[in-house]
Specification:
5-stranded antiparallel β-sheet; 3 domains; globular; 4-stranded mixed β-sheet; 52% helix; 494 residues; 18 helices; alpha+beta
C-alpha cells in the first residue's frame, strides 16, 4: 500500500494548498484550449487532487460500512470493486492532468509489489498509453513547433500516437529522404501545468517532509524544480541524447537513437525510430534472457554514472524498448543529471567504506556528504547496518538474485518512517536526489526480472578505482567495444 500512500500524501498536500488559498481569498481558474490537460493553474490542479482525495475517502468509508454486514464472499467482491473504482479514478485524474502530478503516478506504477493489481495495471497505462491529444491538434503542434509546413519536412506523419505520457506524445513519421523517425511533441499548455505543480515550493517541501521525515527540503526542492523544468526543454533533451548517443555509439547491447536536428526544436524532438517491443515484454521472457536484459540496464546506469558522469534520472519501463536486433534502446533523456568528479567521488567514498566494512569511516563519510545528520543517536554499527541494505547487491563477490522482496524492502526503508527511526536522521542532499531513483526505479525493474548475476564483479569493471577485467560474456563484448574506440567521454563532460 506504500505507493498508494504516496498518492494520498500528494492529495493531502493539495488539500492544504486549497485551504490556504481559500483563506486568503485567492482562486485560480482553469484552461483547456483543446489540449488534453484539463487545468494548468496551481489552484485548479490542486482542486483536482483534493476532489480525488475526498471521493476516494467517501467511497472507502461507504464500502467498509457495507462490508461489515456482508458475508465473506460479498466482502471480497466489494473490496475488488473498490480497488477497480479507485484505480479508474486515480488514473483518470492523473492521466488528464499530465505534468508533474502524472509523473508521480508513473513512478508509483512500478515501485510497490504490494499494490492492488487493478491499481498497478491502471497506473502502468500512464507510462505509454496516457490519454493523448487529438491527431489534428498534435499535427498542428508539430508544425507550429518546427515553424514550417509538415509537407516541407515529412513524407508522412501518422496522426495516431504510438505513445503518450506526462509531457508529450510520440508519433511515427517518415522524413522526405525516407528515414523512419519518432516525433515527440509537447502538449500545449504543459509548461504552465508543470509550473503550477512546482510553483508552490512550500507545498512541495511539505510533501517531501512527510515522505522523508529528516529531510532538509529547501535545496532538494530547488534541485527537483530545476531538473523537471529542464525536461520541458527539448533543445536541452536533444543535447542529452547526443551526449549519450555519441558515448554509446557502436555498443553491442545499448542503443541510443540519434536526434534528427533539422526536425527538432524546443517543443518537438525527432529521433531515429526503434523497431521493437515494449519493455514489459521482458518480464515474460525465459530467465536467461531476463538476466541479459537486466545486465544491460545495470551496465548502462552505472557505466554512465561512473565513466560519463551522467545519470538518466527516469528509469521506468516506458523509457526502454526491446529492439528487434536484441539491443535495449533508451529513448527518454529529459531528466538527466550531470555530475562533476568531486560529486562522483562522494559516492565512491561511501562505497569503499561500505565494502571495507569500516563502520566508523562509513559514518564519518555519510555525515560529511550530508546523507546522515551529525550526532544521530545510534552507534556506528547500527548506522552501517541500516545503510548496508542499499549496497547489498555489491557487498560480496558472489552471484545474487534481485527479487521483488529486495526492491520492496528498499522502498519500505526509503519511505516508511513509522518503524524506521534512523530514517528520521537521514537526508537527501541535491547531489543524491536523482540517484535515489536507482533504488526506486532500476532495482524495482530488476526485481521484477528476478535478475541473477555477480553484481559486485560487474561493478568492479565499471568503477574507475578498480577497472577490473570482464567478468561476463557481455563484459568481454563491452571491453572489445572500448578497445575499438567506444565509450569516449566528451571533453565537455570531463
Amino acid at each position: 500500500m506504500r505507493a498508494r500512500r504516496l498518492l494520498t500524501l500528494l492529495s493531502l498536500a493539495a488539500l492544504a494548498v486549497i485551504a490556504r488559498r481559500v483563506a486568503s481569498g485567492r482562486a485560480d481558474g482553469a484552461t483547456n484550449s483543446g489540449s488534453p490537460i484539463r487545468s494548468t493553474t496551481r489552484g485548479a490542479r490542486s482542486a483536482v487532487m483534493a476532489g480525488l482525495a475526498l471521493r476516494r475517502a467517501r467511497d472507502r468509508t461507504w464500502t467498509k460500512a457495507r462490508q461489515r454486514l456482508a458475508d465473506d464472499e460479498s466482502r471480497r467482491r466489494m473490496q475488488a470493486d473498490l480497488e477497480r473504482r479507485e484505480a479508474e479514478d486515480v488514473v483518470g485524474a492523473l492521466g488528464h492532468m499530465k505534468g508533474a502530478m502524472m509523473k508521480l503516478g508513473q513512478m508509483a506504477s512500478y515501485l510497490d509489489e504490494g499494490m492492488p493489481e487493478p491499481m498497478r495495471e491502471a497506473l502502468a497505462g500512464l507510462r505509454s498509453d496516457a490519454p493523448p491529444m487529438t491527431g489534428d491538434l498534435a499535427l498542428s503542434e508539430i508544425e507550429r513547433g518546427l515553424g514550417r509546413s509538415l509537407h516541407d519536412l515529412f513524407d508522412h506523419v501518422d496522426p495516431e500516437p504510438i505513445a503518450a505520457a506526462s509531457i508529450g506524445q510520440v508519433h511515427r513519421a517518415r522524413t522526405l529522404d525516407g528515414i523512419e523517425v519518432a516525433v515527440k511533441v509537447q502538449y500545449p499548455g504543459i509548461a504552465e501545468a508543470v509550473a503550477a505543480d512546482l510553483d508552490n515550493s512550500e507545498t512541495l517541501a511539505m510533501l517531501l517532509g512527510m515522505v522523508f521525515p529528516g529531510l532538509d527540503p529547501k535545496e532538494l526542492v530547488e534541485e527537483l524544480r530545476a531538473r523537471i523544468t529542464e525536461e520541458l526543454d527539448y533543445v536541452n533533451e536533444a543535447e542529452n541524447v547526443r551526449l549519450f548517443a555519441d558515448y554509446y555509439r557502436g555498443h553491442p547491447h545499448i542503443w541510443i537513437p540519434d536526434v534528427v536536428t533539422t526536425h527538432s526544436s524546443g517543443t518537438v524532438l525527432t529521433t531515429e525510430f526503434v523497431d521493437g517491443q515494449r519493455f514489459e515484454q521482458a518480464f515474460d521472457l525465459p530467465q536467461e534472457e531476463r538476466n541479459r536484459v537486466a545486465e544491460i540496464l545495470y551496465r548502462f546506469v552505472f557505466r554512465s554514472l561512473n565513466r560519463q558522469y551522467t545519470f538518466n534520472g527516469d528509469p521506468h519501463p516506458g523509457n526502454y524498448l526491446l529492439a528487434s536486433d536484441g539491443r535495449v534502446a533508451f529513448i527518454d533523456f529529459g531528466l538527466v543529471k550531470h555530475f562533476d568528479p568531486d560529486e562522483i567521488e562522494q559516492f565512491a567514498r561511501l562505497i569503499r567504506a561500505m565494502l571495507e566494512r569500516n563502520v566508523g569511516e562509513f559514518r564519518r563519510t555519510a555525515e560529511q556528504v550530508k546523507v546522515l545528520r551529525p550526532g544521530a543517536p545510534f552507534d556506528d554499527q547500527e548506522i552501517y547496518d541500516w545503510f548496508a541494505a542499499y549496497y547489498e547487491l555489491i557487498l560480496d563477490d558472489e552471484t545474487m538474485q534481485v527479487t521483488p522482496e529486495y526492491s520492496g524492502r528498499l522502498l519500505y526503508k526509503t519511505f516508511d518512517a513509522r518503524t524506521n527511526e534512523i530514517l528520521k536522521h537521514t537526508n537527501v542532499p541535491p547531489t543524491f536526489a536523482l540517484i535515489q531513483r536507482i533504488n526506486l526505479g532500476l532495482f524495482s525493474l530488476m526485481g521484477r526480472l528476478e535478475a541473477t548475476a555477480n553484481w559486485r564483479a560487474i561493478s568492479e569493471e565499471l568503477w574507475v578505482w578498480t577497472s577490473a577485467p570482464p567478468s561476463t560474456p557481455m563484459g568481454e563484448e563491452e571491453a572489445a567495444w572500448i578497445e575499438a574506440g567506444g565509450g569516449v567521454v566528451s571533453p565537455a563532460v570531463g
